[in-house]
Amino acid sequence: MGNVILIGFMGCGKTTVGLKLSYRLRKTVTDTDKEIEKEEKRSISDIFAQDGEAYFREKETECLRRLTETAGNQIISVGGGLPMREINRELLGQLGQVVYLRAKAETIYERLKYDATRPLLQGERPQEKIRILMEQREPNYEKAADIIVDVDGKDFEQIVSEIERRL
Ligand code: S3P
Question: Which of 61, 73, 74, 81 lies closest to 7, judged by CA?
Fold first, then answer.
């Protein structure tokens, strides 16, 4: 079956779904954010604060390139902004089957309203930020996806079963 990649907005459940899917499909799980944090020896929030978003985006592309050379038979969840670069969408296509976990803006807000780890959603008007970012991103998520799964109102078991069925 090869690699399965999970994409989608912050808070759509990529990490949890990735973990559960890895048990079900008996594949190991990798997360681009965690890989970058390990390599940089600092948190995503610190990377954004100290070196800015552009630096982080370079690290994402480097990480993805590395995975296309090394990853086989894995579940890979990627940061919410990663599919925005065209080169990254190409690399995702080479890497394996891409599953988009699609969530409504309200679902994302409810899940992330007390979260301090997403630098792009901190500060004033988080709902507005989610709505605007989501509008910009949606077309790119759809372009990158082989399979789209709507996650609103579903629990993780349902989501994982649906992915398994459709792979
Ligand atoms: C980002 C999403 C985050 C992380 C960074 C930027 C984004 O990952 O990569 O904070 O641009 O949407 P998650 O989608 O895992 O939250």
Answer: 81
Of the residues 14, 33, 82, 109, which should be mutated to test ligand 1's pocket, given the most ligand atoms within 8 Å of the CB? 33
User: Ligand 1 mean position to 80 CA, how many Å?
Assistant: 4
> Residue 146's closest CA among 131, 132, 167, 164?
167
Half-sphere exposure of 84 (CA within 13 A, CB side): 14
| Nearest protein CA to atom 10 of ligand 1, as residue | 118
Q: What is the pLDDT of residues 102-113, one digit of tens each?
A: 999 999 999 999
* pLDDT higher than threshold 90 for residue 1: no
Ligand 1 centre distance from Cα of residue 60 (Å): 10
Distance 10 CA to ligand 1 centre (A): 5
Share of the chain above pLDDT 90, in %: 93
76 Cβ neighbours under 8 A, 6+ residues apart: 3, 4, 5, 6, 18, 29, 30, 31, 32, 67, 95, 96
Residue 101 near residue 6 (C-beta atoms within 8 A) = yes
Q: The pTM is what?
A: 0.96
The 10 Å Cβ neighbour count of residue 125 is 10
3-state secondary structure of 81: coil
